[in-house]
Specification:
400 residues, 25% strand, alpha+beta, 2 domains, Rossmann fold
Length: 400
């Protein structure tokens, strides 16, 4: 479960920027929150709106980069503890429209939870070299935070939980120490963190090739589950078949008692996207993972988008506390029947071409109050009341 992600000096973001999944004290959708004893409630979903070029994708890239820099070395050396479904491979580029920022490290700071512990992982990077890195742990029932390791360039200090294990502290300056420990040692606390990072599902639907990368379930029960969900979305199929010899996928439909096959490439864009996406959603909900999707709404009918959102907001389905973070331009779902006010975020650039984000809950009306929970969010957004409107006005002239 992600709690809070902060970063600084990455692509269009110069200043410290935070995306918080901790629930605000709001009455709406109270039963949908992720609850654990002794810790704050978390949101199951967050969506980011804003104009093209406002920073939505760069926000996704920042979190995806932090996750990928940890998991990529583990994947490359075949030391994973499970399946890894991540496709953001990019460089760590600082904010370039400022001379000081372009020569400064990019900083990433993440709080996340496993079943019994909350972890804090921090890493800063400059020109591919790791400047600082640290990992801390605090149990839900405990009062103290324990240091697992701290790193300043080539100097590494080990915490008490791993100090007595004869662990090497001399490593490649481009390698995260967290990845190094996961690859070379079998340490319980590191395995716990590694499994969280690997459970994150990342997809960038600005890349059309992503929809051709389909992860088909192998066992019969999972296959039936996928078919059932597709039918629940009114995408009527009775089965599917992969022709291994020709590397072609076919979807089956039963019409008037007769079965027909259609080449997957001949299906509609929305059908192809949902068939590629749903196995990953099923996997994440089963594992309780974080799903990061850029341009989730592309090619999807609004009812299909709502269906995906509902899988995470329904606690009877989302029993293992999976979470969804995505970007969207679809305004039909920007309303109080779908989202809480703290689940809606906006990304936009200011007059210095620096991206900033803020939530609808953070926004104040002219009288200083929060936006009403029954307000017409999409209408007010189009009117420019929330600043990050799609008509490229002065994005942040409203006080947030």
């Amino acid at each position: 479960m992600i709690v809070k992600f902060s970063f600084q000096n990455f692509r269009s973001y110069k200043d410290e920027t935070s995306l918080d999944f901790q629930a605000a004290p709001l009455p709406e959708f109270d039963n949908n929150l992720i609850r654990r004893d002794n810790v704050s409630d978390l949101l199951p979903v967050s969506v980011v709106y804003g104009p093209n070029g406002g920073g939505k994708s760069n926000l996704m890239m920042a979190l995806a980069y932090m996750i990928s820099i940890v998991t990529n070395p583990i994947v490359q050396l075949g030391k994973t503890r499970g399946n890894v479904f991540q496709n953001f491979l990019l460089n760590c580029k600082p904010f370039l429209f400022d001379e000081n920022a372009s020569r400064s490290p990019s900083i990433f700071d993440l709080f996340f939870r496993t079943e019994k512990n909350e972890f804090h992982y921090y890493i800063s990077i400059l020109d591919g070299l790791i400047i600082d890195e640290c990992l801390y742990r605090k149990s839900f029932s405990g009062k103290k935070t324990a240091m697992i390791f701290e790193r300043n360039k080539n100097e590494i200090e080990l915490g008490a939980s791993i100090r007595a294990k004869s662990i090497n502290t001399q490593i490649n300056p481009k390698m995260p120490y967290l990845s190094f420990l996961a690859i070379n040692y079998n340490i319980e606390v590191i395995a716990e963190v590694q499994e969280w990072f690997e459970s994150c599902v990342i997809r960038n639907y600005a890349n059309s090739n992503v929809e051709q990368n389909i992860i088909l379930p192998q066992d019969e029960k999972s296959q039936k589950h996928l078919i059932s969900i597709m039918n629940e979305m009114d995408i009527r199929i009775s089965g599917f078949r992969m022709d291994e010899e020709n590397d072609h996928l076919y979807l089956n439909r039963t019409i008037n008692g007769k079965e027909y096959e259609l080449d997957f490439l001949e299906e509609s864009a929305g059908t192809k996207k949902m068939f590629a996406l749903m196995p990953l959603i099923i996997y994440a909900i089963k594992k309780g993972g974080l799903v990061i999707l850029d341009e989730l709404d592309a090619k999807l009918h609004p009812k299909l988008l709502r269906f995906v959102i509902s899988q995470f907001k329904n606690p009877k389905i989302n029993r293992n506390a999976a979470q969804l973070l995505f970007t969207s331009h679809d305004l039909t779902t920007m309303n109080h029947n779908v989202f809480r006010r703290d689940e809606i975020w906006f990304a936009a650039t200011n007059d210095k071409r620096v991206s900033e984000i803020y939530s609808l809950y953070d926004f104040r009306t002219e009288d200083g109050n929060h936006v009403n929970q029954t307000a017409s969010f999409s209408k007010q957004y189009l009117e420019g009341r929330y600043g990050a409107d799609p008509y490229l006005k002065n994005m942040l002239e409203w006080e947030v």
